[in-house]
Amino acid sequence: MRVPSEAIIDRRGPSRTEWSTYRKIIIELYSKKPLDHVRSHMLDNYGFQASARMYRSRLKEWGALKNWKSYEKDQYLKFLETPGSLPSRSIADLDEKSARKLKRYSRTRRSNKRATQSKASSTLDDCSTSSDSSNDKGTVSHFTTVSPVSPRQNEAVSLTHETELAESSLESSKSVVGDNSSQMDIETYDTTLFGWGAQFSTPTQLPHSIFITDVDVGLQTINLILKSMQSIFAGPLVYQDPQNIPDGLIPPVLEPTKVFWDDIAQAMYLFKVQYPGRAWSTIHKACKTAPSIDFATPLWLQSLFAILSPVNTKLTSSIRTNLLRYLCALAEARFGTTMHPIVTIVRLFEKDAQTRDISERSLAYMLDVFTAQIGSYHPLTIKTQTELIKLIRRDRDFGAARTMARKLLSTTTTNLGTNALGTRKAARQLEHVLMDSGDWASALQLCFLIVGQPSSLSSADAVPSPAFSDECALYTMEDIAKIYDAIGEQEKAMMWLKQALIKSWSVWPHGSVEVQHMRDKLEKSLVTQGRGDEVLFWRISGPG
Question: Which of 120-134, 192-206, 397-411 has the lowest mean pLDDT?
């Protein structure tokens, strides 16, 4: 019967290059944890799959296999009984299984020692008897020339020999862990889908401590993600061309990617505002688009770190985990390997300890790359800056977010103009910081600038007359309604909600989740104000 090629690959395990890539990490983990834990950790965090026999064979080849010799056990037991001399292994923290084995060895050793002493005593008695009888016969026995060594002397000689061996063993272990090779072998994967070769490599510097701490693992995760991103950005990328495509639009090839991430972002928001049914339907809609998304675009990576950051998904962490696993499986199927940089990024992003660190560093890295390659005022660069500000603000670091937002607004106003979409998007980030800080008056004035409400009509009694009706303006109208509601001006809040709903019909003529959500907010406000008779009119008005 013919064996499938996949089974052969699985039986052979990782290539020598892959073993070399993860050598330091495996040795460091194995020095502290049992082999089963190492295998599980490498599979979950790096997609590295190998059998226990493969691990033992490789660890033996590297000189790092933890097979306890009897002298090492004796030395460690001596250390436990009389602290003072350090054992040859850094095993102060034994797991339960190892402790049980050591206890069994200790009991066996004591039993064997007593048996040896008893046998030695019996042998000496026999020697003495034999010597006496021989002397009586006038002959000299060979036993009379032997000078018996006492058990204490034997133990001293053995311990000296064991100490020398232990020291040499420790030196060998240090040389393995402290390997200063600055560059691992790099394997290039076929990425004909994109027309360029992507490379994956480990960071050139790893912690030299033989113990793995949470901090070390976190740093390694960030380094691996940044290295993977570096290999992706080394190839040609699909950017939006500001000269040929109007501001706010994207090339057709990126449309599925934008639609997918817009749906995911909307679903996360709907979960936040307690509309789970609508959120789930939006996620299912996004997953139908997912197979046609382009993983190799900067837009995809930027949206990954911005939308699925733990800061943005605090209330939906389990949903975030499932989405990342789904995207990881999708990427594995697309590239045909678990070791591609995109797969590595998605898998490691799941293990980010629910902090903003990985998202923030990744977005900051992309901001540097985009600024160098496409300029500071490219729509993608500005979007990356706004997402970074949004991330920091949602983590309630209002001081840093306010400083970054003001700087971005100042530079976009100077270089793009007051009414440019990039400037208005930057203003929205500052407006959100002001709202979260409770500065309603300043936030409201900024909102009027974003939607183009004439200054002469910005008084308290003004009728909404916005000059802009794009998505940025519509979301800002909702913010204006929220501000009025917060300061007790419910009538004005309803006026702006109605304006937002009417304008949304031209932006989404076939209806959308956004239109339905605006309608829900207006209906809720009308019912609260005792104007339920108007609900039916707005429910049947417009599309969707």
Answer: 192-206
Using CA atoms, how far residue 427 sits from 233, 296, 431, 518, 535, in Å, is 29, 30, 6, 22, 33
Place of tokens 């809040």: 493
Rounded Cα–Cα distance for residues 427 and 433 (Å) = 10
Residue 54, SS3 per DSSP: helix
Look at the block and give the residue holding tokens 């979960």: 271
The arithmetic mean of pLDDT across residues 73-81, rounded, is 54
Residue linked to tokens 């500071």: 376
Rounded Cα distance, 37 and 110, in Å? 32
Q: With contact defined as beta carbons under 8 Å apart, do 28 and 212 qualify? A: yes
CA angle 15, 16, 22 (to 5 degrees): 95
Rounded CA-CA distance 533/322 in Å is 43
Give how far the C-alpha of residue 478 lies from the chain's centroid of Cα atoms, to the nearest Å: 34
> Which uninterrupted H or E stretch holds 385?
helix 379-394
- Domains located in the chain, CATH noted: 70-130+147-177 (no CATH), 258-292+357-540 (1.25.40.10)
Amino acid, res. 421: L
406's tokens: 């003001």
Burial (CB < 10 A; 0-12, 13-18, 19+), residue 507, is middle
Burial tier of 331 (Cβ tally within 10 Å: 0-12, 13-18, 19+): buried
Mean pLDDT over all residues of the chain? 72
Helices 276-289, 513-528: axis angle to 10 degrees equals: 170
* Greater model confidence, 415 or 129: 415
Q: Once rounded to an integer, what is the mean pLDDT over residues 316-340?
A: 89
CA–CA dist 271, 504 (Å, integer): 22
Q: Which residues pair with 199 in a beta bridge?
A: 188
CA dihedral over 142, 145, 148, 149, signed as positive or negative? negative
**Dihedrals phi, psi of 119, to nearest 5 degrees:** -65, -40
Please name the residue ranges forming H helices in 336-378: 341-349, 357-374
d(CA 98, CA 372): 54
* Nearest-10 crossing angle of helices 421-436, 398-416: 160
Q: How far apart are CA 190 and CA 16, in angstroms?
A: 18
**Spatial distance between the Cα atoms of 406 and 399, rounded to a whole number of angstroms:** 11
Placement of tokens 């460690």 in the chain: 76
Please give the pLDDT value at position 436: 92
Structure tokens, 125 = 């008695």
Count CA atoms closer than 13 A to 503's CA, side-chain side: 22
Cβ-proximal residues to 278 (8 Å cutoff; 6+ apart), any chain: 270, 513, 516, 517
Task: Please give the biggest Cα pair distance in the chain.
Answer: 135
Between 479 and 293, the more confident residue is 479
Cβ atoms of residues 41 and 33 within 8 Å:
yes
Q: Which residues pair with 188 in a beta bridge?
A: 199
Neighbours of 10 (CB within 10 A): 12
